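Review this:
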Amino acid sequence: MNGFLFAAETEPVAHGGELAAVATDQLLVTLLLALPLAGFALTALVGRRLYTRAWLIAVPAIVAAWLIALYLIYRSIFAGAYGEHGLHFTLYEWIPAGRFTVPVNFAVDNLTAVLLIVVTTVGMLVHVYSIGYMAHEPGRWRFFAYLNLFMFSMLLLVLADNFLLLFAAWELVGLCSYLLIGFWYTRRSAALAAKKAFIVNRVGDVGFALAIMAIWTAVGTLNFAETEAGPGVFQLLPERLGSGSFEMNAIALLLFAGAMGKSAQFPLHVWLPDAMEGPTPVSALIHAATMVNAGVYMVARSNAIFANAPGAMFVVAAIGIFTAIFAASIAFTQTDIKRVLAYSTLSQLGYMFASLGVGAFIPAIFHLMTHGFFKGLLFLGSGSVIHAVHEEQDMNRMGGLWRRIPWTHGTMLVGSIAISGIPPLAGFFSKDEILGESFKLGYWWVWAIGVVVAVMTAFYMFRLMGKTFYGPSRVDPHVEPRIHESPPTMIVPLVLLSIPTIALGFALGFPPESGTIHHWLEPVFHDAEQVLHHAPGEYQLLGIDGFLLGASVAVAFIGMLAAMRLFGFRAPRIGVEVQPRPRLVERMTARFPRLYRASLRKWYMDDLNDLLFVRIGGVIAQALWWFDVHVVDGTVNGIAALTQGAGREIRHIQTGRVQNYALGIALGLLVMAVTYIFVVPT
């Protein structure tokens, strides 16, 4: 294997045992990628023959990959085997073209390890959940093959150690998204949603591709870290282009354009809600826990670039916090249970980008981690609800389900409390750090909007709980007798996801600003924070920290209690029961009809896109087509026709007779002589 540990990045390997351990780790990283890829290939080849057991290859492959990931996480984070800069190695030379050489090289550091925790754990549980959810689906072998391909693509993205390899994985993830969203391709809505996701992502990917070209032009390498070939992008770009230069800001903004597409930030957010047309495990895996986090990861990985591009960071923060409040305002009125969660995902991703934009890199990754678990739990829980009520997704046709599906209700309640930011669950710690850091770093407007979003989040999540589980049943009378709890293959993943949803925040984030997650990630972001002049703070219960924490909890409780009062709540074990007030909801809706209609119609973004790109764009394209056919093609074809016509006429003088040619020569000489004598001045 080519290139063990580079001396510039890790301590020298002195002993044969250490060298063997490093070689083993490199082999395991390669195997981590090979397992889901082999699972995809084998399931695609023989999965159809396995019938109801199409998962027999795909699921064990991901379980084995999860075990390998746990070992690598232990080696990186707990054993500190790779040092501060991580494990870097080259598998082989991918593109040797003169000065343009691109290797297939991988890296494992603490940031990679954190992403591996989320991707492999949620991915494995989604695979297990899908055994029950897709049990009656005739094309389940395709589904499991696509899931394995997605896992390979996402792991490749996280492990890649250069921009071009990351971009290749980025596009593979986009392909898997297209295949999984459009899994039920006979449904027109699913086919259109898949196409919409593919096209909108390509818009952002143009920016990402241009950024890669600009980086190569500026520094002549695409490697992230220093290798045997020389320094990497993150060392060279600030030196060559200068901190705060136009070029640095332009490259950072182009990178962010790619992140906006993949992580669905305004205005490239429109594909994510429609992506709920895919099976619910797809929503949990791709559009909540992993794929949409790719943009956040890419910006965090490029922290050295963004730290030296203050203008770009302001744009990241502004778009992030705007997306957070914009998406939350739409989630207020949606009635499809999965669409509420989809807009919630947009809002939480906006939180993460706002955190990255203000320079709070560690809180952003912490929230990425906690969000991956509780949003995966909520999406899988919504799938369990849909399964129980026989494919119904409209919350207006649910209600009173808490008795019938108690395991689903309990786990979704845990996820709702976590995302609302109620202590001591995970979402409270990560969200509070984002808000607190934004305030203390001087971005008071990010803090203020973030607090409003926190109220809105708690409100729409307990609105979802109220309309789904509490109050009188509104389920179709023909369906109600058949409501049932999901099978163990679906319930067990919900219970397992509830554990990190409850405990992860306290385990990694307490005390704020100096918890375990900070010790893990501080080496990754140390240089960027030095550029931004961010000194590590001391958490204090009294003073500004206590005020910010108290305000964060208070607004979350306000939103939660308001939703309970309007949509109901029931907790029989503690003797709490609140009946829904539908008439009060109707009166409030009637008081603001235009706002309600605008929110329900997603602030007319789909209508605006249809007007600009389908209708007006279609007219412009038709006019350009006419110009191309009649003017451009007409000019070219006219010149060709003129040439052909002239050729046909001129060929008549080609008789083949020497006398005629001699006469032509004589006449030509006579014309030349007359011209010389009478026309040309002497």
